Amino acid sequence: MPMVIDGKAISTQMKEELKQKVADRKAQGIEITLAVIQVGKDPASSVYVGNKKKACEYIGIRSLAFELEEETTEQELLSLIGQLNERADVNGILVQLPLPAHIDEDKVIAAIHPAKDVDGFHPQSVGTLCIGQPGFVSCTPAGIIQLLKRSGIEIAGKECVVIGRSNIVGKPMALLLLRENGTVTVAHSRTRDLKEVTKRADILIVAVGKPKMITKEYVKQGAVVIDVGIHREEGNRLCGDVDYEDVASVCHAITPVPGGVGPMTIAMLMHNCVESVKLQE
């Protein structure tokens, strides 16, 4: 049986550490505040926003909720972000994606002040990650690095393959693995002989967006497999991009879905909120 990398347990451990940091800040008279903006009533977004609010409450971070109508104009949203950028009592700003089709997501992300960009999506945040300077890192890839480190998995010198090249997971993931001295290959939908590429991986990170696409034929014996995907199967069961039962028979360690990468994303968002105070100082 492989080692199951327990994202719930690791995220709980991180939240306890952050709780203490928030308490220390409160003792200095600093209340950390996150502003969360949701446009429209997308059910999945509402669940995510609810989870973020709960995490804030648990850690002791004040959260401000801005729930805007679906019809909110792009200009109204940008104006609200502008006001929050100016507010000294707001440390982090998060706009829940996806946004309604009439709003340009790139424009909205670029409007958030880089020192308050706790999602790590602003072009400046991505740039600082590229050149190894301090700044926010998007939460899912940063959470995966924590999963590996806190599970005692060495990254330096390992062959790492990331399947997927999105701006939110694939690209920043590759940069973070490089920062940790991994040897990194990014594979995607146009990669030839994908199985040959993935079978070289000591650490395989899958963010492909297709349910159970990765079977044991793609995985080297003894590899570490991190599954970023989340999908609903028939019968409402959750599954990932990796066929868990099949891959578990060959790998050394694997993340489950649910309970693997998911909880880490919110823990890293909380981490970024706490770090925002340092960046703003």
Specify the CATH class of the largest domain: Alpha Beta
Count of separate structural domains: 2
Number of strands: 11
The chain-level structural class is alpha/beta
CATH topology category name of the largest domain: Rossmann fold
Give the termini distance in whole angstroms. 47 Å
- What is the radius of gyration computed over CA atoms, rounded to a whole number of angstroms? 19 Å
Task: Please state the overall shape, judged from the principal axes of the Cα atoms.
Answer: globular
Outline the fold blueprint:
Layout: E1 3-4, H1 7-27, E2 33-39, H2 43-59, E3 62-68, H3 74-86, E4 92-95, H4 105-111, H5 123-130, H6 139-150, E5 159-163, H7 170-179, E6 183-187, H8 194-198, E7 203-206, E8 224-227, E9 231-232, E10 238-239, H9 244-248, E11 253-254, H10 261-280
Parallel strand pairs: 1-11, 2-3, 2-4, 5-6, 5-7, 7-8, 8-11
Antiparallel strand pairs: 9-10
Describe this structure in words.
The protein has 281 residues and is an alpha/beta fold. It has 2 domains: 29-113, Leucine Dehydrogenase, chain A, domain 1 (Rossmann fold, 3-Layer(aba) Sandwich); 139-262, Rossmann fold, CATH 3.40.50. 42% of the residues lie in helices and 16% in strands. The protein is built from 10 helices and 11 strands. The protein has helices at residues 7-27, 43-59, 74-86, 105-111, 123-130, 139-150, 170-179, 194-198, 244-248, 261-280, and strands at residues 3-4, 33-39, 62-68, 92-95, 159-163, 183-187, 203-206, 224-227, 231-232, 238-239, 253-254. The strands form 3 sheets. A 6-stranded parallel sheet has the order 1-11-8-7-5-6. Strands 3-2-4 form a 3-stranded parallel sheet, sandwiched between helices. Strands 9-10 form a two-stranded antiparallel sheet. Helix 7 (170-179) links the parallel strand 5 and strand 6 (183-187). Helix 1 packs parallel to helix 10. It starts with a strand and ends with a helix.
